[in-house]
Amino acid sequence: MREMKDSGVEWIGKIPKDWEIVPLTKQLDSIVDYRGKTPEKTEEGTFLVTAKNIKDGKICYELSKEYVREADYEEIMHRGIPQIGDILFTTEKVSDKIVLFCEAGQIKVPTKPTALSILLEKMVVEVALPKDRQLGRYPSFHPKTWVLAYVNADGDKKYRFVVMSRNLTFDRSWDISFAMDSSKNVRQKKKTQPICDFLDYLVMNVHNTSNNAGKKRNLIRGLCADIKDVSFSLDSKIFGEDFEVLPLGIGKNAYRMQEDILFCKERGNANSTFNELVVMSPFLSESVIADFNLTDRALSDCKRTLVTRRSELGKLKASDVDNFTIYALKDEIIDGEEEISDELADKKKQDIHAKIYLRRKYSDVDLYLGSMNASYSAINKNVEMMLWLGTKNMYLNGDKFLEDIFCGPVGDAKNPFEQVTVADAVLETESDNRNLLEQKIKDLCRVKRQAVISEDNENAGKYKIEVEFSGIESDSEVTVSPFNSKQEQTLSEHIEFSELEILQLSEFYEITARSGDDTIRRIIMIPTSGFPDDRESAAVNSVVKDRASFVEYIAFVLGDDYVASMLEGKQMGESGFFANSSDAMPALYEKMLKTSVEGPERIKDIGYVLKMVTDKDIIPDEFRELYETFCNTLKIRR
Q1: Nearest Cα residue to 491 out of 516, 523, 468
Q2: With 90 as the cut, is the pLDDT of residue 566 above it?
Q3: Average confidence (pLDDT) over 454-462
Q4: To which H or E segment does residue 338 belong?
Q5: Residues with Cβ within 8 Å of residue 592, at least 6 apart in sequence
Q6: For 557, which DSSP code?
Q7: Which of 21, 105, 339, 530 pairs with 403 at a CA distance of 20 to 30 A?
Q8: What is the distance, to the nearest Å, from the Cα of residue 284 to the centroid of all Cα atoms in its chain?
Q9: For residue 103, how far is the Cα from the chain centroid?
């Protein structure tokens, strides 16, 4: 067997004894940078290889067929001609570093659409789970989970795993979030395996029709490979390192929550009993709560508490909760802004949305938190993510937890919750029409579909889209619209839109389902081909459309605090201080100089907008020269 040695690099591991690790730059004869202004494209000439031609680490000439003039080729390639055996690097955008998974058909239509939304296409993957025969409907893809990788200038990596109950929306309801970071101070990488299992499941849900499917899979696989030997740490006095990651509904490696001690109800089984139980869940199933309520599950002085929404109480009978004390948020908390404002504004209500379960038996306390509601589907069918934490009664129990969320004793005036009964239910009757419309949208998300963009020959500078939904029948209750367009067509197997602006071309399409007084609007994704090359640039130019908005962007990128920088940039833009480029340059220079010392990697982020925005009235030549100077001085690759 070949003798091995430790490489000294954690993610590399062991290497053959006669190998050595040296900086890559010392093994290179030269570095040739071909980046810069993209040459004008032609119908024929020299084949142009761009990042669009790269798939799974190889050049694929079929993915994009573009050409440049021979003279442009000669001018660019005077820097050096690639040879067999050379290494080719391509640049990454933010969208190349993020993959966002969501339930198909559950993207809400934005109140104020922006052209920048189309740049999210490369990040988003819709997950459409198959219909469950037992339920007769589709289970939900419902985990609220983040896996984050951070890397510093030296290449050192750190990871963060986040479990929460909050969706990526502007909802103001009360949620729970829990994060833990990777650590070299503990050795418990076995606890990381469920996270890897979850990532493997996500890879399987990136279908070939997804935008940049190969890149997305490789990004997730790379992250999975990085963290499989990483240990996460709670670094907590209360919980120590007593935790388990519990992914539900991901196939053979799923955690079977229905078999957990939390749901054990077998008479005579020691795991079925407890001294304290707190259930906080915005949505309920009667059967789940009734099982928690069983009398023979109680040990001496047992306390059971349910915290939920008033609208859910209508699902329960008094006998389902006669061993529970029930709490719900007070009306003045739910109504929120309406209680304190008379302004005619878009006021939003709030309610609990956290999913928390606390079980104490003698001195042992089990705490569960994450995305799982106290419902049959969540426990048995959905894809969910939960985290279990173990501790002792001296650190945490039901009384301490309730005192914390009640802001003191239960009777205190500051308590946002109040005790309620089943009789206090606020009935929110579900419309059969609404359920039917939701079902139609979910059905549509599982239909094979595609769209093709072409120039609208009858309208100069405009485009048309042909959309195909395979094997469906026309439905007068459902309409389809291109993103950010008022054009609307009845759902049918073949749909055509014309006279579209470049910023109305997207893989996002608006679906509107109507029946009676009920209307549901959702965004779905349709694999679309034929996008114009300058669409992304047009989107950026629509936002960075004047000197003031450019300054806001620079302040945002270079500021120490992004939110403060946005406000600062807005104030500077509105004050007219940067109306003249000569006024702007000293201030921008000072900000860039400070950033080059404290966070030089942020200077590179400016380059994206410089490439996309071509109007000299917005970005003067002197600023571009200033940016080049900083990049050259800091040796930042553009």
Answers
A1: 468
A2: no
A3: 93
A4: helix 337-340
A5: 558, 603, 626, 627, 630
A6: H
A7: 339
A8: 26
A9: 11
Distance (Å, whole) CA 120 – CA 217: 17
Considering only residues 541 and 503, tell me which one the structure prediction assigns the higher pLDDT.
503
> What values do phi and psi take at 151, rounded to 5?
-140, 135
Q: Which of 385, 358, 357, 373 is nearest to 246 (CA)?
A: 385
Helix (H) or strand (E) holding 325: strand 325-329
Phi, psi of 260 (to 5 degrees): -70, 155
For the chain, count helices (H), then strands (E). Answer: 16, 30
Dump strand ranges (E) for 281-316: 298-307
CA distance linking residue 421 with residue 344, whole number of Å: 34
Task: Outline where DSSP puts E strands in 75-131.
Answer: 100-103, 107-108, 124-127
- Closest listed residue to residue 315, CA positions, set 472, 426, 457: 426
What would the pLDDT profile of 143-152 be if each residue is shown by its tens digit? 999 999 998 7
Spatial distance between the Cα atoms of 309 and 313, rounded to a whole number of angstroms = 7
Instruction: Express each pLDDT in 219-260 by its tens digit.
Output: 999 999 999 999 999 999 999 999 999 999 999 999 999 999
Residue 600 and residue 617 in contact, taking contact as beta carbons nearer than 8 Å: no
pLDDT band at 30 (very low <50, low <70, confident <90, very high): confident
Residue type, 277: L
CA angle 391-392-397, nearest 5°? Answer: 95
Q: Is the pLDDT of residue 571 over 70?
A: no
Question: If pLDDT is split at 50, 70 and 90, which confidence band does 348 have?
Answer: low
- Cα separation, 620 vs 609, whole angstroms: 13
Mean pLDDT, the chain, rounded, equals 86
Q: Long-range contacts made by residues 157-163, C-beta under 8 angstroms, separation at least 24?
A: 157/11, 157/226, 158/182, 159/226, 159/227, 159/230, 159/232, 161/195, 161/232, 161/245, 163/245, 163/369, 163/370, 163/371, 163/385, 163/386, 163/387
User: What are the tokens at 225?
Assistant: 């490979």
Residue 413 in tokens: 């005036």
Per-residue pLDDT, 351: 92
Question: pLDDT tens across 269-316, in order?
Answer: 999 999 999 999 999 999 999 999 999 999 999 999 999 999 999 999
- Which DSSP string do the residues of 4-23 spell out, in sequence order? EEE-S-TTT-EEETT-----
Those residues whose C-beta lies under 8 Å from the C-beta of residue 133, and which sit 6 or more positions away, are none
How many beta carbons lie within 10 A of that of residue 616, not counting itself?
Answer: 11
Could you give the CA distance from residue 405 to residue 427 in angstroms, rounded to a whole number? 25
φ, ψ at 583 (rounded to 5°): -75, -35
- Any residues with CB less than 8 A from the CB of 203 and at least 6 apart, and which? 217, 220, 221, 224
- The token pair that represents 478 in the structure block: 């459902």
User: Residue 163 above 60 pLDDT?
Assistant: yes
d(CA 98, CA 403): 39
d(CA 403, CA 278): 12
**Count of CB atoms within 10 A of residue 65's CB?**
10
Question: How many Å apart are CA 226 and CA 222, to the nearest integer?
Answer: 6
Length of the chain: 638
Interatomic CA distance for residues 274 and 277, integer angstroms = 7
| Rounded distance between C-alpha atoms, residue 556 and residue 60, angstroms | 37
Strands 54-55 and 107-108: unpaired
